[in-house]
Amino acid sequence: MNILFINANLHGHINPTLGLVKKLTERGNQVSYFCSEPFSELVTKMGAKWIGFSNKLDRFLKEYRPTDRHPFFMLMEYALLYDEVLLPEILDIAKEDLYDMIICDSIFGGACFLKQITKIPVVCSHSSFAMSQAPVPKHMLVAGSHPQLDHCYQILKRICESYKIEEPSLEQFFTSKGDLNIVYTTRNFNGDEGVHEPDYLFAGPSIDRLQEAHDLDFSVIGDRKLIYISLGSLNTDFVDFYKTCILAFRNTDYYVCMSIGKKCEVSQLGEIPLNFLVKSFLPQLELLKRADVFITHAGFNSVNEALYFGVPMLALPQVNDQHMVAKRLVSMQLGMTESIKDLSPEILRSKTETLIKERKIKENCMLISREMRNFAGLEQTVWKLEKYVDACGERRWE
Question: Do residues 186 and 375 touch, judged by C-beta distance below 8 A?
Fold first, then answer.
């Protein structure tokens, strides 16, 4: 197969796809991967050819300012405007080569429009929960109920008139169902009864990617319980939170590895206790293999990686789907959640110790870990994609 893979400029959207790209190229398929320059080395190491953003798309990413701050409408507004700039570029790229399939990120890939514009099979890559409906009440999507929503409808109409295609509903745009759909978890954790095979291919978490380089000496942990703390790679400017973590666990019998990102400096945190390792970046997969508790922002990719290794979690959601992920963890008794604004050293330490001692949560985490490890998701996904392209090719010749 010759595949065009369309994605954006965010770790949470690109990292889950890397194992799939590796499996595709290992089987002799050609993958051209459209994403931002900082991810070029990652995708080329998976065997793909990298295609970069144009200046126009880069300029949009830097200059976009929301017309309002409603969480759901702001995401829709951004995604629609992104697609409006993206589509001409993708259609130009598609003309230059004979692609058998386009795999689009479900939020930043234009799938809702491309499957009407092009005759090439369009597959959606869902970097979070695949959903059968929008996570807001129906009345919230009625035109005229909010200025930012009305702006979304204006953009949607403009795109569809430009390409002379049928206008989807805003809910259809959000749920972004392709001809086939790839979801980077198990059906059990995804949870939506309206999302099921054969239209959705559950690939499981993307653990099969390059090992992260590190020079950590794990022998310093010894027999101590390991607490791993990370708020991801995007929203990491939380100096007060990191100080709270230090107050909660300093001079304890725990060993704490804390990733603080690039938006603050270690020097801002004062004296670092001897039982702490604090860096701007830490090798997440290597730490999750050893961690007893993961204190996380509840990013979908990070949570699936932790579940793969059977690690209980304290979820501190901040934006977008993180709140849904945290609720799913609690409902399945895989962890606990708390507002980062309400955390004190005492609450943080108490909840963490509960997770370390709570047998039921640990047992549930190990059960889902075994499910994910026994899940031949990526191999089956690649095989089904190849079969689908073969079937589409046969129909074209009929």
Answer: yes
Is residue 328 within 8 Å of residue 386, measured between CB atoms? no
| Local structure of residue 275 (DSSP, 8 states) | T
pLDDT in tens, 154-213: 999 999 999 999 999 999 999 999 999 999 999 999 999 999 999 999 998 878 665 566
* pTM, rounded to two decimals: 0.92
Question: What is the layout of strands, in order, in the sheet containing 313-315?
Answer: 276-279, 255-259, 226-230, 293-296, 313-315, 335-337
For 357, residues 6+ apart whose C-beta sits below 8 A from its C-beta are none
Distance of CA 324 to the CA centre of its chain: 13
Nearest to 73 by CA among 153, 189, 161, 169: 153
Two tokens, residue 277? 């390792």
In eight-state DSSP terms, residue 184 is S
DSSP summary character for residue 334: S
DSSP β-ladder status, 255-259 and 226-230: parallel
Tell me if 181 sits within 8 A of 103, measured CB to CB: no
User: Per the structure block, which two tokens stand in for 278?
Assistant: 């604090």
